[in-house]
Amino acid sequence: MPASMDPLNLLCLFSSLFSIFVFAFTADTINKTHSLADGQTLVSSGGNFELGFFTPGVSKYRYVGVWYRKIPVKTVIWVANRDAPLPDNSGSLNLTEQGILLLLDGSNEVVWSTNTSTSPKNPVAQLLDTGNLVVREADDENSDHCFWQGFDYPTDTLLPEMKMGLSLTTGWERHLTAWRSQDDPGKSDFTFRCDIQGYPQLILSDGYRELFRAGMWNGLRFTGTPPLKPNSIYSHELVIKKDEIYYRYHLLSSVVSRFTLTQNGVMQRYTWVDRSQQWMPYLTAPADDCDNSKLCGPYGSCNINNMPVCRCLVKFVPRSQVIWDSGDWSNGCDRKVPITDCRSKVGFLKYSGYKLPDTRNSWYDRTMTLNQCRDKCLNNCSCTAYSNLDVRNGGTGCLLWFDELVDMREVNENGQDIYIRMASSELDGDGGFSGTKRNIVIVILALFIGLLLAGLSLKLHLRKKKKKKSQMRIEGSIIPNTGQGYTEKSEKDDLELPSFDLATIASATNSFSINNKLGEGGYGPVYKGMLEGGQEIAVKRLSKHSSQGLDEFKNEVICIAKLQHRNLVKLLGCCIEGGEKMLIYEYLPNKSLDYFIFDQLQSRQLDWPKRFNIINGIARGVLYLHQDSRLRIIHRDLKASNILLDSEMNPKISDFGMARSFRGNETQANTSRVVGTHGYMAPEYVVDGLFSIKSDVFSFGVLVLEIISGKKNRGFFHPDHYLNLLGHAWRLFQEDRSMEMIEEPLRESSYLSEVMRSIHVGLLCVQRSPDDRPSMAAVVLMLGSDGALPEPKQPGFFTERNPLDVISSSTQDGSASANEITITLLSAR
Fold first, then answer.
1. Is 152 tagged catalytic?
2. Mean pLDDT, rounded, for 636-640
3. Distance (Å, whole) CA 349 – CA 431
4. pLDDT tens-digit map of 198-229
5. What is the architecture, at CATH level 2, of domain 593-826?
6. Which CATH number fits domain 154-273: 1.20.120, 2.40.128, 2.90.10, 2.60.40?
7. What is the dihedral of CA 403, 408, 413, 414, to 10 degrees?
8. Which CATH superfamily, name and number, covers 1-152?
9. 455 C-beta neighbours (distance < 10 Å), count
10. What is the pLDDT of residues 674-694, one digit of tens each?
11. In the chain, what are the helix, strand and coil shares in percent, each to the nearest 5?
12. Catalytic residue, candidates 6, 184, 594, 637
C-alpha cells in the first residue's frame, strides 16, 4: 500500500451510521495511548468486521488486515502491509499524534505506514461497520469526513459503497489487485480497474495484457456482462462527475456479498449462505471464450453458441479468408463495400443485441438525442459508429466511436443497438436507395450515363498522365546515389509512394496557416491537415533554409516508404511540386514524447504502465528496424522529440532523414559526417564517426533513463555534482540508490521492481563499449522477463563537467517541451 495518501477531508462512506466501536481488549479505538498488538483485535460496533494480525495459509509471515467477524470461514477483505510482511508475531499497530498509522516490528522499525497532508486534532483510528478503517478526530464522531481511510486503498475485494475509479482533482486511482497466492497477499499482475479513456469502462488485465472488458455502462448494466442485470441483492452504478469517475454497488438486502479478484485473474461475486456455511459464487467473469478481449478482431463478433464462435458482422467479410479459416480471427473483418465518399454516399446500419465495442477512442455527450448523435457522426468522416449512451426512458445521450470497432459479442435481449457507418448501397432502409427513391436514381443515371463515362474517361486520362509526369519527376530527383547495394530496379521499387499535388496539401493545411503549424525541427515546419475524405495528416515541409536538405528528404523516402510496424510512424506519401518538397504522414494527436516527460505538469499523465508501454514500444520499433525490416536500418537520431504518441499513448518512431540502411550482414559503417543530437549520440560515433546498430542501442538507453527520471541527459543539473544524467544514474546504481532518480510520482508505484529493472536495462544500453551493449532483441527480452541481468559497466560520456558549462548547457536547452534541433558535425578524416 503506498505511503502517500489523498488530501484532507476524503469522504468516509456511511461513517455517520456507524460511530460507536469496541476495542476487543482495552479501548474502542487506536490512539496515541492505545496501540494494537499481535493477538488483539479491533471490532466494529455492529460486529460485522474485525481488524487484527493474521497469517494466510501456510505462510510464515504476519499481516494486518480486516476480515468478516461473524463468518466462520475467515475471509480477509483488506490488507495493510500486503507487500511488507512481518517476520514474526512481535509487531504492533500504532497511531501518532499527527494521525499517522505505523506498523512496527519487534525492533520498533517502521514496516508500513500511512500519511496525511494535515494533522488532525486528537486523532483516533476506528473500524467502521462497512469494513472501512478510518483516521478521524476523536471529537468528530458524527462527521462524514476523515483524514485517511482504507477504502482508498483496496486490495483484492470490492465491498458495498467502496469506490473503484479515479479522482480527477488529485489523480488518485482506486483499483483491485489480486493476491499472488492463497499464502501471499502481495500484489500480483492481475488488476481490475475503471479505465477513463474515452467513455469509462471496467477492464481486467494481466500486466499489460487485457483479458476482459465489461462493456460500456448504459444506465442499467454493462453491455458485456448480461448477468449483471437489476436484481434484489444489489444495485450498481457508474458515477461520472466533474471531480471523479468511479464504479460502486449497494446491497439491497441483508445478504452478505463481496466482489473479489482471485489469484487466478478471475472476477467473482460471492454471497454467504448460512445454511451451507460457505461462500457461493453468484457471478464469474471471464465466463467463456467470448469474454476474451478482442478475440474476433475489428468488426468481428463473438457468439458462444456458434461454431466457430467468431463471425464477421453482417455486411462485413474477413480481411484474409485463409487466416480466418485457420482459427486466427485477430485480423478481423472489413466492409464488403468500402466507403469511398464518407459524406454523401453513406448511412448507418443498425445492429441490435450486442456488447458495444471498446470505448477508449470515443466521445460522449449525455444530453443529445439519438438523431443529433447521428448527425454529429455523419458530419465527421472519422466517426465509425454511434449509439445511445443511456437506454433508460427510451434512450438518451450520444456515444461516438472514432476507430475500428473491436471486442463485440452477441448478447441478444440484454444487448444494445449500435449504428455503423456503411456505404449507401449496403443499407436496407433509411439512408439507402430503395423503392421509388432507387428508381429515380436509376433514371437519372441512365440519362447522364454517357456524359459521366466520358468525363470519367477524361479524368482518368489526365490523372494517368499527371501521375506518370510526377513519377518521372521523382525518379529524376529522388533516386539516391548508388553504392549501398542498390540496383536501378530496386531504387524505382523503393519509390512506389503515393504522390500528392501541391493544391491538395495547401487546401488540407489551409494554405499552410500558422494556426495549423504543429512545430518545427531541423528539417522544417510541420503542419496539421485534413484531406477531403476526412483523414487527418501531418505535413513535413522542407524549409528552403533547412540544414537538412534534399539528401535527407531522399533518405527518408527510401528508408520508410515500405516499412510497416505499429511503432513506426506511417508515411502516406510525398509532394514534389513548384519547388516544394513535402512528406505526408499519419497525424498523431498526442505530440511527441518530450512534450510529456520533460514537463512537470504534463508528466503526471504518464503513470508507470504508460511509460513502460512507451519504452517497450520504442524497443520493438528499433528491433524491427535492426532485424525484421526488409533493410537493416540504423536510425541515428533516436531522441524524445522523435518519438510521437498516438491517441492511446502508443509510441511511434519518426524522422528517418538521418537513417542509414544496410544489406545482408552489414552492421557497421564509418562516416565523416556525424549527425545526431547531443546527449543521445554514442561515444564511438561522436569521436570516430563509427555507427552501428549499437549506436541506436545507446540512444535507446538514454531515452529509457529520461523517461524514468523526467530529466534530460544534456543539461542535467544536480546540486551535489556536475555529472550528466547517465553519470548520475550510474553513481546511484553503484550506491544502490537508484530509486532516487525515479520521478517523484513513480516512487509510490506498485510496479517499483519493474521500474528498477528498466533502469538496469537502460544502464546496460549506455555502456561505453559497443560490444558490451545488448542487442535490441536482448533488450526486448530483458524488459519482458524477470531473469537475472548482467552487471552494467561504466557509461559512455561519464565525466564531470565544469559548473559553468552545466549552467550554460542547461540555459541553452530551453523549455522542457522544446524540440531539440538535430545537429551535423564535420570531422576531418
1. no
2. 90
3. 9
4. 999 999 999 989 999 998 888 888 887 765 66
5. Orthogonal Bundle (1.10)
6. 2.90.10
7. -80
8. Bulb-type lectin domain (2.90.10.10)
9. 11
10. 566 888 888 888 877 888 899
11. 25, 30, 45
12. 637
